[in-house]
Amino acid sequence: MEKMDYSPVIKALKKADQDFTEKNGVTHYSLFDAALEKAAETFNRENGTNFDPVEARHQYLELCEAEPNPFALEQVEVNVDDLVVSESSNRSIH
Fold first, then answer.
1. Parent domain of 60
2. Exposed (0-12), middle (13-18) or buried (19+): which is 14, by Cβ within 10 Å?
């Protein structure tokens, strides 16, 4: 049996993740899982698709845990010299 491509529904789950986290912060995982599955169900209803909500959640979470994380914020290199705001030679802690 060929594995179904869940990439179309993944964006809906990412948005649900962001919305849920913004609204609820860190909470019990079962509530978070339910929100992701509901997003998949809504996606199915609106797009005439039949993605399994539980499988969609599993695939989304696997992507989030992957290295490199495709949903991570863009990596930014920081030069330590750029963090110095003033010369410290004339300052004393005493």
1. 7-65
2. middle
Q: What is the pLDDT along the chain (94 residues), one digit of tens a residue?
A: 568 899 999 999 999 999 999 999 888 999 999 999 999 999 999 999 999 999 999 999 998 888 776 666 555 555 656 555 555 555 555 5
Report the domain count for the chain. Answer: 1
Q: Indicate whether 37 belongs to any domain.
A: yes
Q: Is the Cα dihedral 5, 33, 11, 42 positive or negative?
A: positive
pTM to 2 decimal places? 0.69
- Other beta carbons within 10 Å of 57: 24
